[in-house]
Structures are given as structure tokens and as C-alpha cells.
Amino acid sequence: MIRLLADPLRARMVELLADGALCTCHLVAELDAKQPLVSHHLRALREAGVVEREPHGRFTYYRLRPDTLTAAADRLTALAARARANAGVRREC
Amino acid sequence: MIRLLADPLRARMVELLADGALCTCHLVAELDAKQPLVSHHLRALREAGVVEREPHGRFTYYRLRPDTLTAAADRLTALAARARANAGVRREC
DNA sequence: AGGTCTCATCAACCTGTGCTGATATCAAGC
DNA sequence: GCTTGATATCAGCACAGGTTGATGAGACCT
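Predict the joint structure of the above. Result:
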């Protein structure tokens, strides 16, 4: 899941979608990317639950699912908390 | 930065380091990976500030830097918050 | 129905990067 | 000082996955 945010183009897509739902053509224009590429990444994001589809006539809108992002953030904070708790630990060789 | 956690091996390394500092040989053993590969990834993590070095004799220990993880988590929660605030927005075509 | 527009899917290509083997560097012990 | 063991660096390979072009499936309009 976090793996998807690694790609710079996908990261920009979720950044744009954080300000509201957009259709594919918006993303194509804003990102200056080819349409098949945008659709491809949107599919990946959708299958991972980062984004949800909203077909509107011949346009299809995509909307960010905040819960998925929150879940990822929680995993990171939990990791940080474990690291802080074990700050003094050092396994000997 | 989040980009680094995308690789499964690096993710496992961070997971292991969350339980306390480890030296390279520990990671090589636990991950069942070749030593140059582990050193390579540790370097990437270190240059991104995810991990810090602690040379101890001929061993070098690596320790997780929780603040870096927390910073990444905060960026994700901020993104989720923006998405929630703009839940009703939909730019027209 | 025909035409046009948006979007999705497919096949093929190509770049980035994870991985390996060989080698160098440094510390510890004899 | 020499050997041994741990770690870092380098060059090269291989493959995943990002990118592109062509094509197809629906939706809207006249």
C-alpha cells in the first residue's frame, strides 16, 4: 500500500486528489502525462483501496479514501513508537 | 523517503530495527540476504535519515530514528485530513 | 445511426533499481 | 605485522514495473 506512494507520479495524483474529486481528464491535464498511464495508475490505486471510482456519464471521477491513508499513517506511528520504546536496546553479536 | 519503505526487504529491515539497534551481521542473518545488499540498503536508509550509524569496534550498529518515521506519518495524516475536508468537492469538467 | 469524446485495456519497450560477485578497508587478536 | 572477521564500495547483470502507442468499449449529441 505504502509501496504505491513511492512512485512520484502516483504521489502527485493523490496530492491532487486530496483537494477534491477529479476525473481522469483533469489528472491528465494537471500531470502532463499520457492518458493510458494515468488510467493505469488509477487502477493500481483503486485496487489498493487508496481511491474510489465514481462514474458520471462518460467521465469517471476518482476520490481519495482518507481511511486508507490514515491506516498507513497509523502503521508508521506505531513503528516510531516501538522504536522510541526500544531506544536503549542493543542486541549483542 | 516513503519511497524507501516500498521495497519489501527495506521494510523488513525497518521492522527489525524497531525492536532495538542491530549490527549488519544480525540483519544479514535475520533477513537471509547477502551482506553487500544489506549494506547497500542501510546506506540508502541512512542517507534518508531513517537510520543512524553507531560504529562499535569492528561492528557497526544501526538504530532507527523515530522522528523521521513520525514526520512521514504526519504527512500522511495531513493528506487524509485534507481529503476529509474536501470530501464534497468535485471539480467540473 | 453516425460521429465524437472519455476512458480502459492490451502488447511491447525501456529505464530504474534490486541483486550478486569480487574487492577494498578497517578493527581486533595473536 | 600478519591473519581473521565485519563491513563498505564497485561493476555488472537481471528483472520488475513505469511508459507509450494502438485499439476497443461506452456515453452523449445531432
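The mean pLDDT of chain B is 96.
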